[in-house]
Amino acid sequence: MYASYYVQPGVILKWVNHLQGLKQSGQLPKDLWITSSDNFASWGGGGEEYHVEDLEKLLQAVDFVSLHTYPMHDTHYNPDFWGISKEEENLPKREQIAAAMERARDYAVSQYQNTADYIKSLGIDKPIHIGETGWASASNGHYGPEGSKATDEYKEALYYQLMREWTNEAGISCFYFEAFDEHWKDAQNPGGSENHFGLFTIDGQAKYAVWDLVDKGVFEGLGRGGRPISKTYGGDEAALLEEVLAPPVKE
Asked: Where are the domains of the chain?
């Protein structure tokens, strides 16, 4: 399946080498860092089918590694880490969700570490950044109420907090995807998860992950479309939690 979208490392290597050549000739600034941003598996943190000679050359050529990690997608495609254990079945819903989201964070950590271990095994020492990670707040497909029950603003907020805490503590640069929902990503399906990765809605409402920043006045004087920043659900946490579903119990 991966061959249907995967850009072979030799293609990227050609362009990285071209840009590095421009740096060497002075046509680009010497302190400009050059890389490619791709899924963790493409950087060697997944199956051995990715471990090819051109990938090793690419790792030598880039100035740093920028990897993507999206545990939310694997709540459907590879859900071994996802769900509520039998031991957690009788816990309050918040505790069930907290345990599931900590495992999602650990899953992202493992993808990062697997990539780092592979690169180290080649004798290569390059900084590794997280170029993309995020969690959608809604889905009418694989990740919603009829699927893995992964997507809502509450789980999105927990993932955001857990990832920020980990990467800040570990000193890892992390580009969190994304600021605003982008409805063009799955324009034919407004309820699709790809449209709902933002920390803000398309009209500028702050989702649960950043309600605390609204309370602190961080967005005072800012707005979108002529409207000031406000909270989703009118700031009513109880109303939000009514729509939040616990992940499925693992078999």
From this structure: 69-242
